[in-house]
Amino acid sequence: MTIFNVGKNQVHVNIKGSGEPILFLHGVPDTSEVWNSALENLSDNYQCIAPDLPGFGRTLAPRNFDYSLDNLAYFVEQLLSSLSINDAVHLVIHDIGGIVGLAFAVTHPDKVKSLTIMDTTFFSHYEWHAMAKTWRKPILGELTMYLMRYKQFRLAMKKSAPILTNDQIRSNYNALTWRNRRMILRFYRALDPVIFKSWEVQLKSAVQTFPTQVIWGEKDTFLPVELSKHFGTDNVHILEDVGHWPMLEKAEKVHKLIRENIALAK
Question: Is the distance from CB of 186 to CB of 210 less than 8 angstroms?
Answer without folding.
Answer: no
